[in-house]
Design goal:
- The protein has helices at residues 2-32, 73-87, 109-117, 130-139, 183-194; strands at 36-37, 42-45, 50-52, 61-66, 96-101, 124-127, 144-146, 158-160, 163-167, 172-178.
- The strands form two sheets. The protein has an eight-stranded mixed sheet with strand order 1-10-9-4-5-6-2-3. It has a two-stranded antiparallel sheet with strand order 7-8.
- Helix 2 crosses helix 5.
- The chain is 39% helix and 22% strand.
- The model is unreliable at 1-34 (pLDDT under 50).
- The relative contact order is 0.18.
- Strand 2 (42-45) and strand 3 form a beta hairpin.
- It has two domains: 1-32; 36-194, Glutaredoxin, CATH 3.40.30.10.
- With 195 residues, it is of the alpha+beta class.
Length: 195
């Protein structure tokens, strides 16, 4: 009995030490995993104007995919990004924040403009036809699926991936974030792409 208890404790201790040893490696992967060039695309911004992503080269960009009727992930992420960017003061205002819809049926330019104004009026919503958006989703590995209509006021929901892309001035995706990241982590990520 004593041996079993000792072996169990030793096994747990080894597992904990192993997990702790992985933390720096995971953090490093998160910060620099397969940094690659962001793919260019052309969509329509929330003022109804053509938007060419290539024109953002030279400016740090945060790119996030979601939709205006999202009940949780999108408003949380956008509020946290707005807070993190505001924490950087004037420097933060130099970072473009782009919100690409996964629900083009409901996310008209006007709807996106009203929605983003709730978080930060400088955030830019991007939409387009399903045909225009499909290659963008593919380039950024965006999962999205319309769920059956519910009894909620928002109607149907869209299940979607929630990666936040932090793109450096040179057009490389420098950091891959997630909607669960803390505001402190988001602020640190924004500082990384500003440097």
């Amino acid at each position: 009995m004593r041996t079993f208890r000792y072996d169990a404790v030793r096994g747990v201790a080894i597992a904990v030490l192993f997990a702790l040893a992985l933390i720096p490696a995971v953090a490093l992967w998160r910060q620099h995993a397969q940094a690659h060039s962001a793919q260019d695309f052309t969509l329509v911004d929330h003022f109804g104007r053509p938007f060419h992503f290539a024109a953002e080269r030279g400016r740090p960009v945060v790119l996030f995919f979601g939709y205006t009727h999202c009940p949780d992930i999108c408003p949380t992420t956008l509020a946290d990004i707005a807070h993190a960017r505001a924490a950087l003061g004037a420097a933060g205002r130099g970072i473009a924040v782009l919100f690409v819809t996964v629900d083009p049926h409901r996310d008209t330019p006007a709807a996106m403009r009203r929605y983003l104004a709730l978080f930060d009026p400088s955030f830019l919503g991007l939409t387009g036809t399903a045909e225009q958006l499909a290659p963008v989703y593919e380039a950024y590995h965006v999962y999205h699926r319309v769920e059956p209509a519910t009894d909620t006021a928002s109607g149907y929901l869209v299940t979607h991936s929630a990666t936040v892309y932090f793109i450096a001035r040179d057009g490389r995706v420098q950091i891959y974030g997630d909607w669960t990241d803390s505001r402190a982590t988001l602020t640190k990520d924004l500082m990384e792409i500003l440097s």
